[in-house]
Design brief:
The structure holds two protein chains of two kinds. Chain A is mainly alpha-helical. Chain A has one domain: Sodium/glucose cotransporter. Helix content of chain A is 74%, strand content 0%. The radius of gyration of chain A is 23 Å and the shape is globular. Chain B has a two-stranded antiparallel sheet with strand order 1-2. The chains are: A mainly alpha, B mainly alpha. At the A-B interface, helix 5, helix 13 and helix 15 of A face helix 1, strand 2 and helix 3 of B.
């Protein structure tokens, strides 16, 4: 089944282009309040909890998650419940463990944090390269979703839809779409939540849910039909191995904590207390979106099973569109398309911004000092070139749009989470440990996850077929090993005088106390807070045991 | 003087240990909830336990892994905000 519409879908064109015009208007209004780069990226750290919460939802809810959760439930059934809850809870740990310290440090990217905390340019360069890599894979899945939107809207096949939709989005982002990032993300998050909730209510009503007004709670009466149509829908949980569950924890929960554009939301709140409140509110809405997508995923499985529809896996990302069209009609499909474009725009803007500033500022700027004027020209040009490159990579897309998002999150978990957690909570973590951990974690996550990320990555069939469950989760290997390397390399190098002498411990020790909110007068030079090796050693041994468990 | 220095340091260290305990314990609780279904694998009978019409794990997701964990984190955020206030008022360590 292809689900092609014939000709132009006028309500969809109105909703999608209407949304884009609104984003530009919000951007122009926000731009008037922009005085410096801090205002530009983080709304001058002046955002209240509600606006920040919607911006957080927008960061989380990419186009790949907006349409991809429904598709993935169709693909792996209730296993997605485990993945989505692990994903959401990662935000919770981020709030608890390092939202406050990172906010006090004043950095809004993982690379900025690595440079500030560990005082290493090499570390910053490595982290920028990984960030660009992660964001390219993140953007690939968004492009696939954009292509599906334009397929439906304009009645085109995949490739022309990809190029038309992709170029419109890339031009929007490169030549103006980055204005007022935080405000636009908040607005896009709001549209996403509305555009998801109303059609899901309508789908639940038509499918026969008891309490369709609270759709995520009121479709229990459909369970019997599901078990009859698809007996393994729930019991598949018992087929997954413990390694898969642990892999999901390390991949999704640890990944969420460190994904660059999630982390940046910590910095846009007025105060740390308001930032935490914003994250909590965001968490409520993220959870809401998760449970709402279960309704559509549930409906999608029942619909395809009972109607005998043989949907190809690569087309499953259209399932949310199909359900809206089949069960509700034009208004629901138009609303879903508006939500999808909002989700896609915000994520592609975020991803391309990381790529553009990474190349222009950190890589080229690191080799040759650039003037402000050169930077202003270089940033949109690199964004445009990167965007076009991503369009070409998406010609052969991943089977599920969500797959490359998951891949990016796994790489992020393996590269950035250990430096974040250990760097915030342990003074002994140093640049040697961090550089080694990023390289080892990055290698393991990429090597053991290649085929999952993209069908063209089949250079290593042995590694690509790594048996970690229904879907591969190499986080079970790569995240523990990055902790092990960071902890033990730091411990060893701290004890080698010639290397230890190159670490500005006095400066970084004071920085850590400051990050935790200790006032200047309460910080002693010989303070032992956050300095003990016992805790990190225990974590290192546990992680080593988990790494060995994953290998056996 | 020595007494004063020692008591300020001790009070601040107590605050630090409390903060460390709250962060470690709550992060572990969050991780256990995220992996909750793993611990239910020895109990396949849960698939027959229905709440609001849903079998496990959907009711687990709606209750413990969503509303439950958000409420827990809210409580922890309140505790951490109080700890931050106490740290801001920490006495001078000489």
């Amino acid at each position: 089944m292809g689900f092609e519409r014939e000709g132009l879908f006028i309500p969809g064109i109105i909703s999608v282009f209407g949304s884009i015009v609104l984003f530009i208007i919000v951007g122009i209004i926000a731009q008037r309040a922009t005085k410096n780069s801090g205002d530009y990226y983080m709304a001058g750290a002046s955002v209240g909890p509600v606006v920040n919460a919607f911006a957080i939802v927008s960061s989380y809810l990419s186009l790949a998650t907006f349409i991809g959760f429904t598709a993935y439930i169709w693909g792996i059934q209730s296993l997605l419940a485990i993945m989505s809850q692990a994903w959401m809870i990662g935000y919770g740990i981020m709030i608890i463990a390092f939202s406050g310290p990172i906010r006090r440090l004043g950095t809004y990217t993982a690379a900025g944090y690595i440079f500030e905390r560990f005082q290493t340019n090499t570390g910053r360069l490595i982290s920028v390269i990984f960030m660009i890599f992660i964001m390219i894979m993140y953007a690939v899945s968004q492009m696939k979703g954009i292509a599906h939107i334009f397929e439906l809207m304009l009645g085109l096949s995949y490739i022309p839809a990809l190029f038309i939709g992709g170029l419109i989005v890339v031009c929007y982002v490169a030549f103006g779409g980055m204005y007022g990032v935080t405000w636009n993300q908040a607005f896009q998050g709001f549209i996403c939540v509305i555009a998801m909730t109303l059609p899901v209510m309508a789908i639940a009503k038509v499918m026969g849910a008891d309490v369709w007004l609270i759709p995520f709670w009121g479709y229990g009466n459909m369970t019997e039909g599901m078990v009859k149509a698809f007996p393994k829908f729930f019991s598949i949980l018992y087929d997954a191995s413990p390694k898969w569950y642990i892999g999901v924890l390390f991949s999704m929960t640890f990944g969420t904590m460190s994904v660059p554009h999630y982390l940046s939301r910590v910095a846009s709140a007025k105060t740390i207390a308001e930032g935490r409140k914003g994250f909590l509110l965001g968490l409520v809405m993220i959870g809401l979106v998760n449970v709402l997508t279960f309704v559509t995923g549930f409906a999608g499985v029942i619909y395809t099973q009972t109607q005998g529809i043989a949907l190809k896996a690569v087309q499953a990302d259209k399932l949310l569109f199909i359900l809206s069209d089949v069960f509700v009609g034009n208004w629901a499909l138009a609303l879903i398309l508006a939500g999808a474009i909002a989700a896609g725009m915000s994520t592609i803007a975020g991803a391309l911004m990381v790529i553009g500033t990474g190349i222009a500022h950190d890589i080229i700027g690191g080799v040759k000092e650039l003037t402000e004027k050169q930077k202003k020209i270089l940033a949109p040009v690199t964004i445009f070139i990167a965007g076009v490159a991503i369009i070409f990579v998406t010609i052969s897309p991943p089977t599920f749009a969500l797959a490359s998002v998951i891949w990016a999150i796994i790489v992020s978990a393996s590269v950035f989470t250990a430096p974040l957690i250990m760097g915030v909570w342990w003074k002994g973590a140093n640049k040697y440990g961090v550089i080694a951990a990023m390289l080892v974690g990055g290698f393991f996550s990429i090597a053991f996850n290649a085929k999952f990320a993209h069908p063209s990555f089949t250079w290593s069939p042995t590694l690509a077929a790594a048996p970690y469950g229904p879907t591969p989760f190499p986080g079970v290997l790569s995240v523990p090993i990055s902790f092990v390397v960071l902890i033990f390399v730091s411990m060893i190098t701290n004890r080698i005088p010639s290397l230890a002498a190159k670490i500005p411990r006095e400066k970084t020790d004071k920085m850590i106390e400051f990050m935790h909110g200790w006032p200047d007068h309460a910080i002693r030079k010989d303070s032992t807070r956050y300095a003990g090796d016992t805790g990190p050693a225990i974590i290192g041994i546990i992680m080593l045991a988990l790494f060995i468990f994953a290998l056996v | 003087m020595t007494q004063k220095k020692s008591s300020a340091t001790e009070a601040n260290d107590r605050l630090y240990k409390k903060e460390l305990f709250v962060v470690v314990a709550s992060s572990v609780v969050c991780m256990l909830v995220a992996m909750g279904v793993l611990f239910m694998l020895p109990f396949p009978g849960l698939l027959k336990v229905y709440v609001w019409g849903y079998p496990f794990p959907f009711w687990y997701q709606l209750t413990i892994a969503y509303v439950g964990i958000v409420a827990f984190i809210y409580w922890i955020v309140l505790v951490m905000t109080k700890l931050d206030d106490q740290k801001a008022k920490a006495e001078r360590e000489v």
